[in-house]
User: Which sequence fits this backbone?
């Protein structure tokens, strides 16, 4: 695939405190030497925000779409639709990357995804990591990496909107992100696989995400961490009895 433009979409609900770090990380990734000749449009979707999320995004140079849905699937879809209109480039030459407002992509994030696109992959499904100092990091890592082989490549089973990329053509062919309050990322990837698109699950370029236990989306990653923490506590209690 020849990539001429990239859309980076971040949904956000009341994320004024964490958004600046997320946007700075995307800005750095956009300036990578292997990306600098590609047009990059960053779109923040301020979904039902009561704080300064939209203002913070605009101050950082991002395009802003506002909605009042409290629906990550609808928000991601709205951001992608805005980007595709604004970029005004053939879908065959646009790459859509998504991350979250509470996440920090590495400097080579976009370069990594675009390299995979040039190899013919139509979607790149990445992993996430938690900060080393978090109390839930070890618990998460053990369970998260349960399927990782001791040797060789880990074709992981995870899907995260915080670390996802897809060609616009493939994205549009399956109807884009469904309007789900949770699991819109998994639903999109499942549709891509059903449609016969080339989907790469890779742990080569993880994204650092928030270890918070109270998130913005019910049933999302924060709830997942809460469940893991509760199970770990119960297991330790049983072992002690």
Assistant:
């Amino acid at each position: 695939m020849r990539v001429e433009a990239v859309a980076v979409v971040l949904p956000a609900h009341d994320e004024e405190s964490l958004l600046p770090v997320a946007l700075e990380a995307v800005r750095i990734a956009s300036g990578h030497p292997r990306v600098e000749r590609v047009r990059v449009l960053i779109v923040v979707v301020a979904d039902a925000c009561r704080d300064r999320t939209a203002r913070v995004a605009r101050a950082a140079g991002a395009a802003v779409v506002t909605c009042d849905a409290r629906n990550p699937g609808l928000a991601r879809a709205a951001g992608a639709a805005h980007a595709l209109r604004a970029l005004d480039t053939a879908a065959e030459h646009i790459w859509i990357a998504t991350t979250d407002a509470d996440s920090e992509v590495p400097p080579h994030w976009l370069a990594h995804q675009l390299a995979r696109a040039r190899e013919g992959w139509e979607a790149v499904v990445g992993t996430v990591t938690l900060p080393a100092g978090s109390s839930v990091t070890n618990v998460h890592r053990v369970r998260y990496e349960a399927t990782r082989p001791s040797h060789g490549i880990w074709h992981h089973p995870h899907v995260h909107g915080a670390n996802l990329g897809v060609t616009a053509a493939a994205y549009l062919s399956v109807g884009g992100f469904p309007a789900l309050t949770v699991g819109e990322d998994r639903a999109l990837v499942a549709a891509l696989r059903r449609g016969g698109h080339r989907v790469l699950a890779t742990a080569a370029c993880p994204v650092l995400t928030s270890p918070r236990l109270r998130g913005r989306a019910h049933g999302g990653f924060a709830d997942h961490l809460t469940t893991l923490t509760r199970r770990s506590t119960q297991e330790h209690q049983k072992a002690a009895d």
In short: Confidence is low (pLDDT under 50) at residues 232-236. The chain is about 35% helix and 20% strand. The radius of gyration is 18 Å.
